[in-house]
Structures are given as C-alpha cells and as structure tokens.
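So, who can interpret the following?
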Amino acid sequence: MPAPLPPPVRKGLLALARRAISVYLSEGRRLAVGVDCPSIAPEPRGAFVTLKRRGGALRGCIGTILPSGPLDETVARMAVSAAVEDPRFPSVSPSELQTLSIEISALTVPEPMRAVEAIEVGRHGLIVSRGGRKGLLLPQVPVEWGWDKQTFLEQTCLKAGLPRGGWREPGTRIEWFEAEVWGEEAPE
C-alpha cells in the first residue's frame, strides 16, 4: 500500500470531486485539472467515487480499477460519472448534489489472491471474474453490511452475475486490492 495521502490532499480531492460534479451539472462540461484548478495528486492510481444520501443510502458509485492517469484527474472524472452515468440511478440534480456526501477510494493495483484464508475483511477489496463476467466490491462494503469472508466472496460472485459459490469453480479468477478510503458528511 502506498503511503497515505496527507489530510490536505484528501480534503482537496473531496472538494475537487464536488466541484467537478457541480461544473458538469451547471455548465455541461468536465473540469480540467491543471487548467480550471491546480493539480494536487499527480500520482497515477485507480479510484472509485461513491455518492451517498443522508443516512448512508447509495446514490451512485463509479470507478476505474487500474491507474489511467493522475489521481486528481481520475477522481474528477469518476465523480461526474458517479453522478450522471451510474445505470442504477437517475442523474443527480444540482439541488440534490448539495445533500449528498462523497467518499473516495484510492486503489492499489489488483493482484491474484494468494489464498481465501488470507482475505482480511475491511482491508481487501475483491474482483471475481469468469468468462465475460466480472464483479468488484470495495473493502468497505463487507464492513458496512457486516459480512464475513465467505459472504464477501459470495456477494462478489453475485455482482459478477455468477452463482454464490462461483468463486470455488475452476476457471474463476479472484483478485484482491487495497484502498485508502475517506469521505465527508453530507452538507447541511
């Protein structure tokens, strides 16, 4: 796991995510990091941005597993995607944005899982894939739902569209990763 991001960078990335969504919703354009605002996290990392309603209900979550550019650019891009491209939800409205909290997960590069016994709930995120199906759950998900290791594996299989026990079947690939996760409370 890379060194934790300093608190000012974490806070700056949360502000960047909120501003990126706001600019997109009000102006219809994507924020250009380095042009519209200074770059604050240039290291390449995969990241997910999660939007939640008051009370913690999911409102949108989109991310990229592998680094595809600087973390700040990825956060800005994924924030907008979580707000307007998550197929499970309608697009966020400008007035709704004011009521949502934002959580960022900065990922390590996934690696093949060594052993099921080595999975640490709350530390590892999982990716289960077989054939053309793939499911990913972030490390905080099993903690939020109170899942044990086996339930975590089963739920990741279900997310991939595989049967619960699909993780045991030949040809199933299981990868794990870690994530630095931080967030904010919904604005009042």
About this structure: The domain at 111-177 is CATH 3.30.1490.150 (Dna Ligase; domain 1). The radius of gyration is 17 Å.
